[in-house]
Amino acid sequence: MPTLSEEPSLYPDTLLEEMARLPSHRHWWVLHTRTRQEKAVARCLVAFQIPFYLPLVKKRTKYSGRQVVVTYVPLFASYVFMFGSDEERVRALSTNHVAQTLWVDDQDRLCFELRQLRQLLLTELPLTVEPRLTPGQYVRVRLGPLSGMEGVVLKGDGGKRLLVAVSLLQQGVSVDVEDCL
Length: 181
Hints:
This protein is α+β, with helices and mostly antiparallel strands. The protein folds into two domains: 1-104, 2-Layer Sandwich (Alpha-Beta Plaits), CATH 3.30.70; 108-181, no CATH class. The chain contains three helices and twelve strands. The protein has helices at residues 38-48, 86-93, 107-122, and strands at residues 10-11, 27-33, 52-53, 56-63, 67-74, 79-84, 98-103, 128-130, 138-140, 150-156, 159-166, 171-177. The longest helix is centred in the middle third of the chain and has 16 residues, at 107-122. The protein is globular, with a radius of gyration of 17 Å. The N and C termini lie far apart (36 Å).
């Protein structure tokens, strides 16, 4: 089964863990990219040495009846999270891959949500992208691979799902969880 190489999704690799050590003139921006330009933006940001996070998930596609190709696709279509200065924001806009930038009012909240999202992606559990946030009970998982994860409980098909949200985008991902956890 051919696998297309994974594009850079986090630069530097320790960005989300070392936020306190990074220069204070930088802050989070959400880059709203042109259609299907997320990876091109990520490559440009690596070249410019601008920190960013592009959540990617594995996608298996069957071609020609049998051949399965594994690719990595953005979790949130048309969005890249950049941690940069005002000058770096302008530099990202100059690539012509970015349609607009969104200012993040609550920097700490977005960073917390991105850390949780990364932790969830590292579990490699099957995820469902949730297009809009819905009201529900806010919980913290106590046991299992999602221990410490916080989110909103959603009622899904035949069970309960934990929604980990990026509130600025009004989007999130969900995963099946058992009530006892």
